Amino acid sequence: MTAKLSVNLNAIAQLRNRRDLPWPSVRHFGKIALAAGAHGLTVHPRPDQRHIRFSDLAVLRALIADEFPNAEFNIEGYPSDHFIGLCLECAPHQVTLVPDDPAQATSDHGWNFMQNRDLLKKTVERLKKKKMRVSLFADGDASQEQLRAAAESGADRIELYTGPYGACHDDPKAEAELAARLGETASIARNLGLGVNAGHDLTVANLPPLVAQIPDLAEVSIGHGLTADALEYGMAESVRRFRHACGDTI
Known about the structure:
The protein has 250 residues and is an alpha/beta fold. The chain is built from eleven helices and eight strands. Helices cover 46% and strands 16% of the residues. Strands 1-2-3-4-5-6-7-8 form an eight-stranded parallel barrel, surrounded by seven helices. Helix 5 (117-128) links the parallel strand 4 (94-97) and strand 5.
């Protein structure tokens, strides 16, 4: 099984927002990524719109609907009433719920599923009524008890937070240990009936060991590392490199 690649466009949007200009265009780079074989696009519209703007959502959703009907749109965010309203209006294929505080620079931890049981169950039910797949952001070392609470929410998948794994880029021993731990967490989730996604600080170098530990990994969402590579290789070639790292024979 090959993990599907969803290209996160937040970094492109953040660069655009440095000026009051329409470039670089998230639509344009999203189109390049999809044409190069990315399975989908991911965005995280934060309340302050510091990268993806609310107005980008309809544009990207239309790009997929009109030109890449086999691709998927994934929207990440904290389940506030405003965020849920954006999802209901835009109808993405997948919604990934994250426990972020609005002031956070980036997602840096998974849910406490037991503590947030009621919020997540209510939100998942609301989204699934509209035929959206729901994924919940989870720590890479989440316990069986925590993951059972995630499954009981009705969610379809978890997304493993791989930030600590990505941070071990200069420590092969720690990287191998964390890859194995992520594999164990994925196995617990699988046995509870949850699909497994992964995301955060994944690279062409560290993806293959992760895929080896989680052979049924459904999807990876990658933004920072892929955008950094695009400065050197271009967006299309970077997508192909990451697809290969995911196990795609292309």
